[in-house]
TrEMBL record:
It comes from Somion occarium. The keyword Mitochondrion does not apply. Residues 192-214 have a biased composition (Polar residues). Required for the first step of diphthamide biosynthesis, a post-translational modification of histidine which occurs in elongation factor 2. DPH1 and DPH2 transfer a 3-amino-3-carboxypropyl (ACP) group from S-adenosyl-L-methionine (SAM) to a histidine residue, the reaction is assisted by a reduction system comprising DPH3 and a NADH-dependent reductase. Facilitates the reduction of the catalytic iron-sulfur cluster found in the DPH1 subunit. This is 2-(3-amino-3-carboxypropyl)histidine synthase subunit 2. Its cofactor is [4Fe-4S] cluster.
Amino acid sequence: MTEHTAFSSSGEDIIASTIDVAPDGPSYVRSEEDFLDYYDIERTVLEIQKGDYRRIALQFPDELLHDSMPIFRSLKRHLGEGKELYVLADTSYGSCCVDEVAAQHVDADAMVHYGHACMSQTSRLPVIYVFGKKEIDTDDCTAKLLAALKESSTQRQGIMLRFDVAYAHRADKIMSRLRNALEPTTRLLYTPSPTISSPTDQTEKSSQNISNGATPKEETLNSQTENEPDFNTVLYIGGESLTLTNLLMTHSSCEVYSYDPVSKTTRLESTRVNKLLMRRYATVQKARDADVFGILVGTLGVASYLPLISHLRSVLTKAHKKSYTISVGKLNPAKLANFLEIECFVLVACPENSVIEAKEFLRPIVTPYELDIALQSEPTWTGEYILDFKKILESEPKSLPEGENEEEPEDLDQPVFSLVTGKYRHAKRYGTAQATAEHDQKESSSAIVLRNQDNAVTVMPDSAAGQFLQNRTFRGLETRIGEDAPSVLEQGRSGIARGYRDDHQS
């Protein structure tokens, strides 16, 4: 009879479980020609040959994995000999980001990214984007968007058109019909999605993707001037997604109308902007009450993520907060629950994965921009919301001239009123002489120690994790070296990780 304990399991149920993923891809494919057109096989082959790339990584999201092998075979057949292709299935972070780290594992010199993309600028490899070409009724889309605009009494300064990238192949046709129906004085602005990007200059590549069929009256707006007050209305074509949510937050002062090509419905989205911002403001207040922060690395492919992490460390240090930098891959509540000493997390990720509102997480998760607001002595928020790394870094205050020091608050022990609890609290101050003195006074034999190669014992000062551990009732198993007799060796489990066998029989 095999022994089983109440608190152990083989894990076989978890390993053998299946995850239901709704397949995505071409719904109208009736022939190989349709398949090649949907996934831009011909254009992909031309770009690979033009760049003379030898080792190419093909990145797929979970919902397109069922088409990965047909795409692989088609590319291999059209490229011929001398080209090596690698399929990247499980991305390190969000599937919308280019996984340059996984591509470097196979020494790739270019990538082809399939499916939805956040279009964050890359830092290492050239990327060929294949968004797919989902079906959309352009006549119905144009008619319903125009009807929604007519129902509103807002005076139009300008209209910005935004697409889910899977519908961008119909952008020119929709732009043309909207332009013909709108008043001649109404500006219509649109940023084409680049189909290929270089780590050095993404803006120039995007300009090459503007359709040759655009009429002279159509205007384009590059990403650098997108947030200037040239428009007060946004039209979004696509379904409910993180892209739409972030669009609402970053353009909270605009009227936002969305058209869902699947349900063929139009609605005014900006009515829920206030609720979104109020929830984020409540999260900022929780961050103000935190003294220990965890900087979560949620991307390794977006340009400027390293300078942003350095910026976060710097502002937290100046505010006398303790910070830990953690790379955990894809986030889930179980992973973050292991860091109980951390009171708030700051997520460094692409714009589409930065805002986390899941209630199952034990600690609040804020964006870098929200952290900057939370650390202000008197926080003010005008409603502006920034998710772009570059803009956050540009807002960083310049360093003081040499010889001048920033003034410290008069009283570091002054209590702070918490809007979350409705009470005053005394904030912990890390990195100050007073904090180090208090730590030395509280030191005991149970303090965390660090042994070097000479077996010398030193105390780890100013350690948030150490202080948290001392206050816990359970601190791990006792070593009891030399106090207990050695145990008798017994036969353990055998087999492979997907299904161990317990060979011990009673």
